[in-house]
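Holo prediction — 2-acetamido-2-deoxy-beta-D-glucopyranose.
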Amino acid sequence: MAASLLFGVFFCVFSVGVGLWVICNHFVTAHIPAGVSQPLKLRVLDCLFQLLFTWGMIFEKLRICSMPTFIRFLHDLMPLKEDPDVMVTDLRFGTIPVKLYQPKASSCTLRPGIVFYHGGGGIIGSLKTHHKICCRLSKESGSVVLSVGYRMVPQHKSPTLVKDCIAATIHFLKSLDKYSVDPARVVVAGESAGGGIAAIICQQIMDHPDLPKIRAQILIYAVLQLMDFQLPSSQQNKNVPLLREDFIFYCCLNYLDINSSWRSTILKRAHLPAKVWEKYEKWLGPENIPERFKKRGYRQVSPAPLNEAAYLETNVVLDVMNSPLIAEDEVMSQLPEACIVSCEYDFLRDDSLLYKKRLEDSGVSVTWYHVEDGFHGVFNTLDMGYFQFPSSTKILNAIVDFLKKL
Ligand SMILES: *[C@@H]1O[C@H](CO)[C@@H](O)[C@H](O)[C@H]1NC(C)=O
């Protein structure tokens, strides 16, 4: 009795301590740019996020479970809100769980289809966390949406995540008539890591002779390369919530199964040989990014001399399954038209800018929507009550607009 009381008191004090630590840490480390709308809301959101990660890390250190497992356990407790206008069905494509969203309003023609890949760095995020986005997309664009519940880190690393998505997408493309989807109007879409997956899928399945062609790709602040973490946006937004450099490295290194001790080597750009940097300079170099994005304190970092051991372990970043931004020109030129959403205060903003330029240089049409006051993850605040940012609705509208014009 006394022991459990003592434990209870200890636990309460410890929890309050963790909470206070997270808040103090937020004020010391988080950078909230002056241009973000509703900075207070972003601060609260960041503290909640950091609280979640901190508890996850505590559980990981205590060897109770890994941080991602802890967060996904919480995801699974989330209640799902039904939308009266959308019919949601849980299915499995093989072993891969998917959710299918179909507008209830009757339609006498075949509907457009959207295959959606959620974000979360391959670590967090689930069918549930992106349920609201999929409902709204389905309802407002009148499309059938298929959301893919791919397997994730730490149990599954690169390239399982992408392979699951490819398998689910191919399966969907082969069974379009079952869901009354028009084969000429299937698009792929994703946010953050899921945006990267959408881009990779367009590159990987375009040569499939017996599959309908993907009509378009919607890339919402996508991760499009894992080679260079010294782009202007990475420097400018390194401590901007909700995606900080720390979290990026945690996700990337775990996903690629690279020892975390290489982080500083990667930041010095010493993990790849000079000839590789030279080869890709024409696509990754800062001259590809418009001047106005290079203002806020960007300083070019020249690659440090190569660390051979690091290169042996990190060269997987040069695989187009991890960095679709460096696909060859002949691949780029065959890609479907794109809608690219980028946010000004996002570590990954320049991935979008560089991919946009590569597509345009290859003759692919791009519709670009840049959120001037946006940060990474803002789209996810859609329908989140107090936490909703107005930009989330604007992004949805931009995407729906794009879809309607296809
Ligand atoms: C990562 O590298 C460090 C330093 O080289 C080493 O001590 C550690 O054992 C490595 N970790 C794993 C999991 O290989």
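READOUT: The mean pLDDT is 96.
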